[in-house]
Amino acid sequence: MTFFATLILAFGMSMDAFAAALGKGASLHRPDFKEALRTGLIFGVIEMLTPLIGWAIGLAASRYVMAWDHWLAFGLLTLLGGRMMMAGLSQTAGEPCDPPQRHGFMVLALTAVATSLDALAVGVGLAFLQVNIVMTAITIGAATTVMATTGVMVGRFIGPVLGKWAEVLGGVVLICIGSTILVEHLGWFS
Asked: How many CB atoms lie within 10 A of CB 130?
């Protein structure tokens, strides 16, 4: 695989993380760059590790990973998105909108895992190619860090416009990402 092909793969793999980070950034109270970078690094490290894990699984279990990865991603993203939507909808109209300053590590890590399960399957596929898996994984992780950090910072400007609906929108985005992953893998509309 050429470096250009690896870069395209890396940025393609990071699009889900960008969309999820956009929702996360929109639901926070004016996240600063430090918080955006923290989110980006959590997403990036997890996205870097999943193709390595997938590559290590290799041939023996590839059909099992590919058979269930879309269901796991759909389930995790739907649960996290539903939780965000319920939190956003539970605020009453008279209640001042007081979004959190930051998301907990576990919430970000679960979201990152859910959006990176496709990278696990890609890692399994890369086991059959002659690629430098470490450099490929680092490139994927770096691209995801950049995209997720950017997503949080863009979300910073969207959040104040949306008010309390930012968290609801973030939940909808996560559910849509999970549904898209499921539909693409099941081939319902192809």
From this structure: 6
